[in-house]
Amino acid sequence: TQLLEQSPQFLSIQEGENLTVYCNSSSVFSSLQWYRQEPGEGPVLLVTVVTGGEVKKLKRLTFQFGDARKDSSLHITAAQTGDTGLYLCAVITSGTYKYIFGTGTRLKVLA
Amino acid sequence: SQTIHQWPATLVQPVGSPLSLECTVEGTSNPNLYWYRQAAGRGLQLLFYSVGIGQISSEVPQNLSASRPQDRQFILSSKKLLLSDSGFYLCAWGGPGTVEKLFFGSGTQLSVL
Fold this sequence. Notes:
The structure holds 2 protein chains of 2 kinds. Chain A is an all-beta fold. Helix content of chain A is about 0%, strand content about 50%. Chain A has one domain: Sandwich (Immunoglobulin-like). Chain A has no helices and 11 strands. In chain A, a hairpin with a 5-residue loop joins β7 (about 60-65) and β8 (about 70-75). Helices cover about 0% and strands about 55% of the residues of chain B. By secondary structure, chain B is an all-beta fold. Chain B contains no helices and 11 strands. Chain B has a single domain, classed as Immunoglobulins (Immunoglobulin-like), CATH 2.60.40. Classes of the chains: A mainly beta, B mainly beta.
């Protein structure tokens, strides 16, 4: 059973378009993280959300944690080619130090 | 500042050969250490994690093992590689003082032929 499901799996859009990717689970989490990974490199943390309903902004990226702390979304406004990459959500399972990652959304932004 | 080193970057090995991937962290003490494997373009599968020297938690029964001989050293090994061991292997560290955040190495692309 996959703990974290991300959608869509793949997304190809034109530069300047907006997009939203989702991270869903049936479990409740104390926090959730979003990472971006470039080909051939390790993932890099973008943001951690902690409070239900929390919204965080990172330039053109807006992250929201669901009210019930079971899901999260990442919205990108006016996508740029530099946003291309694999977006991963991750959580720490309760009572452990285990970080579990989602299935990933591969985003390609075309010039 | 903290840094994480992982090597080699690329490795091609024949089926049945042994494997040793090494990861070291600098600039922090008593880190939690992790090994993940990633299929092309997909999410990360947790293989092993360690909260201290000699303490290894295995997440997936498989052909691999891990060891932590020193506080900031984490080693992934196999006695005999299988074709299914091919993938992108990532080492990461987290905490203390970095709650809810992982820092990753640059990865090793392993091809078993």
